[in-house]
Amino acid sequence: MNRVPLEKKVLSENDRIAGELRERFREHGVLCLNLISSPGAGKTLLLERTLESFAPGTRVAVLTGDIQTDNDARRLARSGFPVRQITTGGACHLDARMIERALTEWRLEDLDLLLIENVGNLVCPASYDLGEAAKIVVLSVAEGEDKPLKYPSIFFKSALLVLNKIDLLPYVPFRIEEARENARRVHPEMEIIEVSCTTGEGLDVWRQWLEARREAARSELREAPVC
Amino acid sequence: MHELGIANSVLEAVQTEAARHPGAVVRKVAVTVGELAGVDPESLAFSFEALTTGTEWQHLILEIQTRPRMHRCPACGLDFRVVDYQFACPECGASKTECTGGDELELAYLEMEEP
After folding, report:
1. Residue A201 falls within a domain, yes or no?
2. What is the ipTM metric for this complex?
């Protein structure tokens, strides 16, 4: 029996496309963020609030993934910014090829922020690199403080945890300190922001985080050598 | 349930490699799955079986090698396995250690009979 070593990633084709996307985003100074949560944690409302807070003419676009319907794209399109729905038709996650295809009608020259709303799912999206600069996991206080321990992969791979729906804290048995501790047990360097998209509390902190990241992406572009 | 997609990627990789060895019969493919990879080994095995049953690949054995989360202590250099999210170095007690493994999702090797 002949043993042939392969030593390559199972998702090497996805990773290849994601690598190309990452390079294109870098070349154009586009900050790409991949938002992941379980269904109903509030990704779409967070994006609506975020888009509302941008001045007209802000160079931002959104790709939103769902298994079926374009409900989210219609909600987000009210902001006036470019939005595209990706319906996966059954797949429980977005992959890099879907992003590549969805981007063909936009010019990256016209953007400096691309927000991707992944399919609602805390498991599968963790495995698929979309070329993003960072993954962001959104967890609502209606869910349970042990989620980081139950779904460690996505909490390990996300740079930021947005704890959403904090206006509900008086009504649900959610121990927010324990949730923070659990997230840091899985990922000690994780940044954590608490928000309520209903009352607006904490959204200024989220916007500051976003602006700091955008500025970092822009300065990386300025410092890049001109060939 | 993205394991079906992953099983399909594994099978495609096997087919690509098999095409480079005309006449060879692939008996086994080994895949490495880290505990942080977000892939359930049982679902992957089930998906792979569902995918290959009734095809020319139905006798292909999928071996899944699981890998634990590993950390390295930058202070004393110790490599250690992380159990129950205990990241502190068990040797010198340093609290900040680096993750060095556990998110693998890789094709390790193929076993084939050459003609």
Report:
1. yes
2. 0.79
